[in-house]
Amino acid sequence: MTQFETILESKVDLSDGEDRDRMSHIVVPASAVAEAIVMGTPCTALCGKTWVPTRDPKKYPLCLTCKEIAESKGWRIPTS
Ligand SMILES: [Zn+2]
């Protein structure tokens, strides 16, 4: 089974503090997310989005592009 992780998209290019555009994305492997948070380095989601993850994604909606790609690969999407 493929290991992956959902993680919040962090707005690295804006500093208005608003949450309206935030989404959770799927990143593979899951360990890449933890490393990116600790190291402060960017990770890349299935949809191609690259950013530096900083927060827990659980309360944000899942990126539809990531979800479609994961489903097309036959992965089980985590639901919360
Ligand atoms: Zn995505």
Can you describe what's shown?
With 80 residues, the protein is an alpha+beta fold. The chain has one domain. It is built from two helices and four strands; from the N terminus they run ββαββα. A two-stranded antiparallel sheet has the order 1-2. A two-stranded antiparallel ribbon has the order 3-4. Strand 3 (43-44) and strand 4 form a beta hairpin. The protein is globular, with a radius of gyration of 12 Å. Mean pLDDT is 75; it is low at 10-19. Residues 25, 45-47, 49, 63, 65-66 line the site of zinc ion (ZN).
Q: Averaged pLDDT, please?
A: 75
Return the structural class.
alpha+beta
Radius of gyration, taken over Cα atoms and rounded to an integer in Å = 12 Å
Count, helices = 2
The strand count comes to 4
Largest sheet: 2 strands, antiparallel
Name the hetero compounds present: zinc ion
Distance between the termini: 20 Å
Strand content: 15-25%
What is the 3D shape? globular
The helix content, as a percent range, equals 10-25%
Q: What is the N-to-C succession of helices and strands?
A: EEHEEH
Overall domain count: 1
Q: Strand sequence of the main sheet, in spatial order? A: 1-2
Which residue ranges are poorly predicted, with pLDDT under 50 across at least 5 consecutive positions? Answer: 10-19
